[in-house]
Design brief:
Elements lengths: L1 H16 L15 E11 L3 E5 L4 H15 L3 E3 L7 E7 L11 E5 L3 E6 L2 H14 L15 E10 L19 H12 L1
Parallel strand pairs: 2-3, 2-4, 4-6
Antiparallel strand pairs: 1-7, 5-6, 5-7
Amino acid sequence: MKNNILLFIGLMLARTAFPQSNPDIKIIPQPQSIHVFKGSLVLKEPVAIIADDDLMDRAIQIRRYLEPPTGFIISMNPDNAAGSIIELKLCNELEYLGEEGYKLEVTEEKVNVTAFHSNGIFWGIQSLRQLLPKEIMREAKVKDIQWVIPCLSIEDKPRFRWRGLMIDYSRTFWNKRHTKRIIYVLAW
């Protein structure tokens, strides 16, 4: 009986040691904090990306990710932004998240990706891509699909300073193409 109580207490402590997430939200690596709200943003034309001059390379990057599969023509920093809005901004108040930390907020009106450094914006964009339907990874236009993003708030930063992957060729004999694909996936 005493062992069962100790086991139960140990499991409860272990449960609190790791971040919890909504089972419907699947982001790799799992963010440190996810708060899901009711509603969703349906990405539809017109789509506008609003970014400071310092973040134009990240804005172009997200446009390159979204335009082919959606078929939308995405405008950059329009005078009158309407429709679906994706806003990228740097914020000195988020210094506690470090260079690669970010805050991603999705409401029914817009997406905000905020970070202390542009590297954090990059990781926020990667999380945003994972929130969209899997067809967002296609390089050709996908028909008959709604680009729905759940309303949520994510705050994340790397748990470890370095990222890595060990490829064990003694047990898995992959060809050159497969190895390059693994390296590509690890890079983002």
